[in-house]
Each structure stands twice: as C-alpha cells, then as structure tokens.
Design a protein that fits this description.
By secondary structure, the protein is mostly helical. It has two domains: about 15-130, Talin, central domain (A middle domain of Talin 1, Up-down Bundle); about 135-170 and about 180-310, Up-down Bundle (I/LWEQ domain). It is built from ten helices and no strands. About 30% of the residues are buried.
Length: about 325
C-alpha cells in the first residue's frame, strides 16, 4: 500500500461506490480488531482453531481495505490518492502493531499496550469519515491547502507574539548554568534586527495571504472535469506544501542572534511564493476576476524581499 501505485481499472470508476466500499472495509477492520483484542483479553487463550479463524478474518479485512484503495485510479488526482493511501497505511500499520502487542503480551491480563493498540486501530479506522469527499480531487486539494494555511498562520502568530516590543523570544526557557544568565544579549533583538525582521514578517504574512487567497479561489473556481484540471489542482497542492517548511526555515533564521547573511541567502521563501502565484495565475482557478490580488501579492513579495536585500547589502 505504501509503495504501490493503483492502476486504471477496466470498469468505469464511481466515486460514491468507492467511498461506500472504503467506509465498509474500515468498519469491518475496526470490528475485527475488537474481536481479536477481546479474544486475548483474559485467560484461557483461544484454541488453535479459534486462532486460525481470528487470523483469517483479520487478514481478509486488511486485504479488503487494500483492495478498495487500489480501486482509486491515478486519474482521480494524486492529492486525493495520497490522503486515501495515508489513511489506509495507518489502518494496516495499526493492525500490525496490535498483533505484535498481543504476541508479546502476558496471557494473564489485558495490558495497557494492548488497550492503546486497539484504540489506535479504532482511531485509524474512524479517519475515513474525515477524508474529503467533495468533487473528486478538488475537495482533497482544498483540505491540503487549508492544512498548509493552518501551519503558516501558527508560525506568523508565534513570531508576532515574540516580536512584541521588549519581548524576550527565549522567555519560556528556564535559566541554565551551562547556557549562562538570561542577560546574554544574544537572546534579544537589536533595533537593527527589528528593522530587518519587519520585512521578514512581511514575507511570512504574504505567505499566509497567498494560501488564503488560493484556497478561496480553488473553492470558488476549482474543477476536476478533465485530466488537465485535476493535474493543475495537484500541482497547486504540491507547491503549497513547499511554503510551510520555507516559512519555518525563515522563522528559525529570525531568532537571535540574527545572522543577516543567512536571512539574505534564504531565498526559498521568495521562490516558493513566486512559483505559487505564477502557477495559480496560469491555472483554471484564476479567471480574470482573480488576477488583481495575484498582482498585488506578487508586488508585496518583491517589495519585502528587496527590503531584506537592502538591509543586508553590507553582509555580502
């Protein structure tokens, strides 16, 4: 499941039928996990015949989950397929862990590890209800973009809090004899640092605005009626996945002691945003009515990056 690739089926693919079947197989797997765990929750142990039946039922449930996953053709979109694959893998791995726990447990009583492993399978099987079931790949891409936006929002809020005038970004770290006293100036921002960081914050906020606007555009205009549209949605999700790590990398370079040269050379943020905006503009989710904010945010990224370069010119 983790490494294999579903192929294009011979029969016409029906998304409602797929979701129904996937939900049913996940439910059956959850029930089989319960049966397996209860059978080994107290002595006496099941007979060899009962063990054989239990193992066959578990195996059949897992094979059914994998089989339904393989129904989902590549043409439905890589973003949707990845989400279903991750959910399927989590169920399979959960059942493996439960089985290993039972094999290694004492026969005298139900162990805490067995309870946790059983709950892990239940939780993994319940995830099927959280998978995006809207219009094919469009709903999956909306979910992926929303997740990226959430990460970037958290990073922006954390850095805004740390940049409050007089705020010590390491204030939540206890004083340590080996690290030195809290008066160490390397734990505070200078005025020059703050001027540079205001532009860095501009880039972080531009990242948040880009994700927010593209998310809204995909919701309003995203379609999955053709292979080209599905591929464009997938590409938007892939590029968005590059933005949150680049925001984290930029945020880390902003903590004192600030290395202006490292900040200047960190072009991943600018490149990710420009790539994201360019691809959005050329995709079907950006009709003429959406072009205004794309141009505005492109200018905002350029403006803040130029300010960063000006502040750090002497570092070259």
């Amino acid at each position: 499941v983790a490494e294999g690739e579903p192929g294009e089926g011979r029969e016409p693919f029906e998304l409602p039928r797929f979701w129904d079947a996937l939900g049913q197989t996940f439910q059956v797997t959850s029930q089989e996990a319960t049966k397996l765990s209860l059978a080994f929750s107290r002595p006496p142990l099941p007979s060899a015949e009962d063990c054989q039946k239990l193992s066959e039922d578990v195996q059949n449930a897992i094979l059914a989950v994998a089989t339904v996953y393989y129904w989902l053709p590549k043409g439905q979109g890589t973003t949707l397929r990845k989400m279903v694959r991750d959910a399927t893998t989590e169920v399979v791995e959960g059942m493996i862990q439960l089985t290993d726990t039972i094999l290694n447990a004492s026969a005298e009583s139900l162990s805490q590890e067995q309870l946790i492993s059983t709950g892990g399978v239940w939780e993994a099987c319940e995830q099927v209800s959280n998978l995006p079931r809207g219009e094919y790949n469009q709903a999956a891409v909306v979910s992926a973009l929303a997740a990226c936006l959430g990460v970037v929002k958290d990073a922006v809020e954390e850095m805004e809090h740390a940049l409050v005038e007089g705020q010590d970004p390491y204030g939540d770290i206890m004083e340590d004899e080996e690290l030195g006293f809290r008066g160490n100036r390397d734990t505070y921002w200078s005025e020059a640092d703050r001027q540079l960081l205001s532009s860095c914050m501009g880039l972080m906020k531009a990242s948040k605005a880009c994700l927010k606007k593209v998310l809204a555009a995909v919701k309003a205009h995203g379609k999955a009626d053709s292979p080209e549209q599905i591929a464009q949605l997938d590409d938007l999700a892939d590029i968005a996945n590059e933005i949150s790590p680049s925001v984290d990398e930029l945020a880390l370079s902003m903590y004192p002691p600030v290395n202006p040269l490292a900040v200047r050379l960190n072009h991943t943020q600018e490149a990710s945003l420009m790539n994201f905006l360019h691809f959005c503009r050329t995709s079907h989710v950006c009709p003429p009515s959406e072009e205004g904010w794309v141009q505005f945010l492109t200018g905002a990224v350029d403006h803040n990056m130029n300010k960063v370069k000006n502040f750090t010119q002497g570092q070259l």
